[in-house]
Amino acid sequence: MKKLFIVLVSSICLFSACKKSTDINSAPNNSAIYFPPIAGTTWETTTAASLGWNETEIPNLYSYLQLKNTKAFIILKDGKIVLEKYFGSFTIDSNWYWASAGKTITGMLVGIAQQEGFLNINNKTSQYLGTGWSSLPIAKENLITVKHQLTMTTGLDDGVVDNDCTLASCLQYKNDAGTRWAYHNAPYTILDKVVENATSLNYNIYFQQKIRNKIGMNGVWLPSGYNNVYYSTARSMARFGLLLLNNGKWDTTTVVKDASYFTAQTNTSNTYNLSYGYLTWLNGKPSYMLPTLQNVFNGFLVPNAPSDMFAALGKNDQKVYVVPSKNIVVIRMGESAGNLQLAVSSFDNELWGKLKTIIP
């Protein structure tokens, strides 16, 4: 995969302990959620008609998705497949890159490493990487914690020539840690090494043991330049979305045992970008920031989407949308939809404008 595909694939976001106002009312009805078997291809389906959805608009949705270079599209309701569509030569068995949507996986895996006692996100990053992992003076480097990496608030300069570059020479001082939000891929990518050093396990292996194999995903992390990019089928992406919908629990298996960490991952994590958790994007907040910009924009991140939606978003419009109030997960894989090539694009709001005509 060309480096172009992943320059800004940084996933998402920092999480705080404060809860969304919709958390209690929009929590999924866990007893009603279906989980497909870990092995095999069985996955129960339901129909849009049985749910009272507007079926007449589904062909228009598919035409729109095809026009927007989509390869795979899935909607789950209560864990069951309502819509599943593949375009062109892409099939149920085809693999595709997640880009920055994979950041939310890393955010969860860091939390699992913490719950197992391997690390503490409030510890300085140099505790796991050793000093000199950046070009900062030691006093400034030691201000950076794992939590700052999760929340995109390291203070490292994202305006360097290559902000994917993880070499110490590329990791330069901009501000003190915790005083600025910037969508910076390199500090996120270094979390992989933090996890490896803390657990003494290869990142792929630790992920497979703690998340992938427990929920029946396929896929693998592959190096691409300085980046580490996840590839899988669309259904595996849907499995991860279902795990997010059920607050880190897969059927009777609790993957994320630290409920406070999961709450933090899916809620505002800093005072600068209210729409960012721990490597996870959040809707329904009064303002938001975007990759490459330092502007703060008023309003919801995705105005057409439900306010309690949170998401894993990747470059070229790789999407994992989770809506607890409706018990739905929406997956989109494909080439760029033709707008800005960042993790967040105008496609998000356009797509939800279409979905609003179908899902009541």
- How large is the count of helical segments? 11
Structural class: alpha+beta
Given as residue ranges, the uncertain stretches (5+ residues, pLDDT < 50) are 1-26
Strands of the biggest beta sheet: in what spatial order? 2-1-13-12-11-8
How many β-strand runs? 13
Shape: globular
Overall pLDDT confidence: 92
Q: Approximately what portion of the residues adopt beta-strand conformation?
A: 15-25%
Could you give the distance between the termini?
A: 38 Å
Question: What characterizes the major β-sheet?
Answer: 6 strands, antiparallel
Q: SSE string, helix = H, strand = E?
A: HHEEEHHHHHHEEHEEHEEEEEEH
**Estimated radius of gyration:** 19 Å
Instruction: State the helical fraction.
Output: 25-40%
What is the compact description of this entry?
This protein is of the alpha+beta class and 360 residues long. 28% of the residues lie in helices and 16% in strands.
Could you list some keywords that capture this structure?
single chain, 360 residues, alpha+beta, 3-stranded antiparallel beta sheet, 28% helix, disordered N terminus
